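Protocol step 4 of 5: obtain the predicted structure for the target chain.
Materials: sequence only (see below). No template structures provided, no constraints applied. The aim of this step is simply to have a reference model before the mutagenesis design in step 5. Sequence pasted as it appears in the construct record:
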Amino acid sequence: MNTSAIILMILFIVVIWGGLLLSIVWLNRTKDEETGELGTAPGTDDETLSHRTHEAVA
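Step 4 output (structure tokens):
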């Protein structure tokens, strides 16, 4: 391989693995309670949702 091919290979390896590492760090820092479609909307906490499923079953 010539020099430009090696440089491009190293560049794209850094971009791909760097993106993976950044996404892992971002996911670890983000709270599960604040993500998703509902986020922190009223009535979406664990206690309320658990109560609703038990009512539906009973």
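Step 4 remarks: Helices lie at 3-29, 46-57. The longest helix spans residues 3-29.
Proceed to step 5.
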